[in-house]
Every structure is written in structure tokens, then in C-alpha cells.
Amino acid sequence: KGMPKLEACYNLMDFETVARYVMKKPAWAYYSSGADDEITMRENHSAFHKIWFRPKILVDVENVDISTKMLGTKVDIPFYVTATALGKLGNPEGEVVLTRGAHKHNVIQMIPTLASCSFDEIVDAKQGDQVQWLQLYVNKDREITKKIVQHAEARGVKGLFITVDAPQLGRREKDMRTKFDDTGSNVQNTGGDNVDRSQGAARAISSFIDPSLSWKDIPWFLSITKMPILLKGVQRVEDVLKAIECGVHGVVLSNHGGRQLDTARSGIEVLAEVMPILRERGLQDKIEIYIDGGVRRATDIIKAMCLGAKGVGIGRPFLFAMSAYGLPGVDRAMQLLKDEMIMNMRLIGAAKVEDLTPDMLDIAGARSH
Ligand code: FNR
User: Fold this and answer.
1) ipTM rounded to 2 decimals
2) Considering 105, 256, 325, 355, which one is annotated as catalytic?
3) Which residues of 267-297 are buried (b: 16+ CB within 10 A; e: fewer)?
4) What is the pLDDT of residues 229-249, one digit of tens each?
5) Residue located nearest, by CA, to atom 16 of ligand 1
6) Could you give phi then psi for residue 291, rounded to 5 degrees?
7) Contact at 8 Å (CB) between 259 and 280?
8) Measured in angstroms, how far is the CA atom of residue 40 from the centroid of ligand 1?
9) Residue 256 annotated as catalytic
10) pLDDT tens across 60-112, in order?
11) Is 165 a catalytic residue?
12) Phi-psi category of 314—alpha, beta or left, where left has phi over 0 and alpha has psi -120 to 50?
């Protein structure tokens, strides 16, 4: 009642505006919150605005191809649906709605450890040769973690993203102010801990995560699975270099959507730090680099691809689209990004993703504070 029609959503921010008014308050608080003063959360998006285009003219852009490959999988457009916990807070069907949207648009879905649907339900919802990845929170009990990883591999998951920016969950005050009631959110995979509901959703579900996880554990992960392993939440070039030494397949430059360390830098800024150093040392093909955080426009995706990312993760916009409109919302959000991307590739003078190069950007303003 009084809700804007789906067709009135013209960009990803519009879904957030609608979701804010239709979602239950604790659900809105959990999805929309960032850590502390939310400075990093805001910066994630605004960092893209400090990067300007240097478009090429008179390039034949009659046919534009925005498809690319991520970890060997061909996708329609260089984004994936990143892992976000508790899908049923926003939609009674939960994460499977995102599975269906990802299938329709031929993009990859990263399944969260803390999904509301069970892992198997989300895998069962996959269609045809659809590809899924798994986001992993590492349990203090490594046997539980090993089971989760090997089960995922057996069920066809094609990439393991170990979250490394959350030895403890950040303080999301908006979330903490609303008392968490997990009826309807139906958290899975937490190892059956007794849950303390007095500190918001994030605190309630995260007590099993192992804060002692360290570089020493990485060889063990490489030994228990053949899936490519990526570290999600890397924030400095030194750690990218270490990741290469460890033999992992990739990293996601990310600050967890601004939900962990406040005043951490945005993924796009870290990417601008990392890529020139990898190129200098001839390491750019040794590892796949992804970013996430604040991606809302196809121009944001294009900027990341120009700098050398293999793709970008998008989180909240699909949660908001799913909460406000269900699958048709997710479908429209993805289609809007595809339409924007084709148009902006034409305007920047690139007919395919490989044509996006660093010289098409002016990043002088992005690296000065
Ligand atoms: C997240 N994110 C996240 N990351 C992770 O590794 N495990 C998780 O369980 C979650 N859960 C989660 C819940 C919600 C509600 C949000 C918004 C985010 C972080 C997520 O994968 C990603 O890093 C950010 O969401 C990217 O930023 P945007 O696109 O939301 O701005």
C-alpha cells in the first residue's frame, strides 16, 4: 500500500529507499548498518566519485560485450552476489531468491556461512550449470569447518572465500539498539551455540568464529580442498603479496561493507594501491583480485575493471531489492546494472571488458586524503 511500483526504481539506490520504509525495523537495522560512525561504509561508495574517466573517442562500440570470466567461470557481467548473512530477515524465502536472480542473469552467487536457508537448500535452488561460491567463517572447532568445506566441494561449489576481516564482529550500533529476535531469520551453521540476543543480530550469531585464525592455517585449508581458495577482506598490498606466497588463488579487497573496522579504506582505493605494485613485480597474473563495497553503478564496476580487478561483489542492493520486491526486484536491479554497463562502456570507448585499462581513469584524486 502506497509502495512505489517496481518500474519506478531506476537505479540501485532506489531499492534502498523503498526497503527502508517497508522493512521491519530490526531487519533494516541489520542490513543497513555499518561499524561505529559508519565512515567507511559511506566512503565505500563515495571513493568511486574521486575517480574520473578519461574516455576514448571514435572507438567502434556498436557491439558491446560485457561478459567476463571469474575463477574460470564465464559470467554475463563482472559482478557477483556477495555473501550477506540472514536472508530471511528481508524475505521469507531467504537466499534462494538471490540464487534465482543470479541464475537469470548468469552471475555467481557467494553463499554465506550464516545463511538463513540451509546450505543444501541454496545449492538445491541452483539451476542448470549455475555456479556458486562459499563464504567461510572459520569455526573454533576445525572439524566442523572441514565438514562444511568438503561438503561444499562435494556439492559442486567452485570457490572458497575465507573471511579474514572478522576475528570479532564489528560494533554496529544501529543493529545493537534493536534487540535481535531470530524468529524468521532462522540462522544455520552456527554450531548450535547458545545465542545471546541482547546485542543485536550480528553479535548474536558470531560467537563461534575463531579469532586465533592466522596465516599458519592457510596451508591446512589448501590441503583439505581442491576448490580455489580466496581471502575475503584484504586491505593492504603487503597482505596481497603474502597471499600470493601462500599459494591462494585470489583475494577480495574489502572492508566487509564498512561493518568491521571503521575508517578502513575502501576496496577501490586499496585496489589502486595494489595493482601497480603487482604489475611492477610481474605478479598480476599470479592471483585474481576482486573488490567489494559501495558498488552501486556500472561506472563503479567499470572503474574497478580498469584498475585490474577480475570482478566486484555487490551486497546490500540485492538484499534491499529482495526485501522490497522479491525476485522481480533482484531481477530488475541486475538488469539495470547490465543496461548501465553497456551504455557506459560505449561512452568510455570500450567494446569489451579487456579493453578497460588504467589509462582510462584519472585517479589522482583518489589517493590523496
Ligand atoms: C555482509 N557481509 C558479510 N561478509 C562475510 O564475509 N560474511 C557475512 O556473513 C556477511 N554478512 C553480511 C551481512 C550484511 C547484511 C551485509 C550488508 C554484508 C559483507 C559482504 O560480503 C560485502 O563485503 C559487503 O556487503 C559489500 O558491500 P556492499 O555492496 O553491501 O556495500
Assistant:
1) 0.99
2) 256
3) bbbbbbbbbeebeeeeebebbbbbbbbbbbb
4) 999 999 999 999 999 999 999
5) 84
6) -135, 160
7) no
8) 13
9) yes
10) 999 999 999 999 999 999 999 999 999 999 999 999 999 999 999 999 999 99
11) yes
12) beta
